Amino acid sequence: MTNVFVDEALRAEEHPGIVFRPGPTGRRAGLAGGPDVWEVIDTLHATRSDEPELAEDALVGATAEALGLARRTVWVAVRYYAAYRDEVDERIAANREAADEAEAAWLAERELLQPRSRAS
After folding, report:
1. How many domains does the chain have?
2. For the whole model, what pTM was predicted?
3. Structural domain of 25
4. Which of 20, 58, 76, 82 is the right S-S partner for 54, CB 3.0 to 4.6 Å?
């Protein structure tokens, strides 16, 4: 565990504004006083997908607006992502998988609980 904390401290030093927080899926990078880095980057990717013509600054601005963050805060997440892309991409993929599983479970529950018509 000591190695984890040392690594996180070095990363936080390298990327001011980044903090590490625990959670049900393990420790993850987040913005001080804001969302997790993966959430910002996932939103940035979605914005890029919706509006592929956006220039760099406009993309960051649109992402900031969508999340209610300052542009400089989004830049902190972008810089962290550039340095630790695989880690953030894994977190995004894990979140999408968990969301898909939750939706499938919800749909199965709805189907089970649907009223059925009686045959006369």
Report:
1. 1
2. 0.79
3. 2-113
4. 58
